[in-house]
Amino acid sequence: ARDVLAMARAVGPVEVGSVQEGQLRFPIAVRLDEPFRASPDAVGRLLVAAPNGDRIPLRRLATIELEEGPSTIQRTWGRRRIVVQANVRGRDVGSFVEEARAAIEERVDLPGGYYVRYGGQFEHLQDAQRRLMIVVPVALALIFGLLYLTYRRLSDALRVFAAVPFAAVGGVLALVARDMPFSVSAGVGFVALSGVAVLGDMVLVS
Fold first, then answer.
1. Domains of the chain: which residue ranges?
2. What is the mean pLDDT of residues 177-194?
3. What is residue 92's predicted lDDT score, i.e. its pLDDT?
4. Label partner for 73 (CA 20 to 30 A): which of 12, 53, 61, 186?
5. For 79-101, how does the pLDDT look when each residue is reduced to its tens digit (9 = 90+)?
6. Is 4 left (phi over 0), alpha (psi -120 to 50) or beta?
7. CATH of domain 1-67
């Protein structure tokens, strides 16, 4: 068995040492000559020494097939991973991922130990949305607090702050009219819109 495995490793390069030139170190690898590894038949004709001294063709000891596989094996935290990339055009990334997730759960039966993780722009979008869930309420609370400190009256602060939900309704209608999804830039725009609406009402109240 060891001889068969050694012959299989010899098809690909086997590192046997290294050579150093200055500060650089280069590995030394050996492999079978091209005629002996050009095809499965050529590999099958390689002779392996038996314990009694006979030389047996490798095809009698192992099944030799040519199969396609990954050119490189990538790992994350010690686990193998395969990356499938796609460019989304003409629609938002969030709805595309939700549709892809539903289709994969319905049609793909993953073996044990396998799982699917969605990254890239979708992962950044989720992180940004989680931050916006904190930043937007804090920003609105700060705006209301500054209004109260300015007018010293709760009724005046509420009167000015009432422009924020109306401005938000207009922003939502604009997104619907343009058929645009709610994105991170849209969330930042809503915060800026709230400030503009409050500033306009402050001019009217004063």
1. 1-67, 122-205
2. 80
3. 79
4. 61
5. 888 888 888 887 778 888 889 99
6. alpha
7. 3.30.2090.10
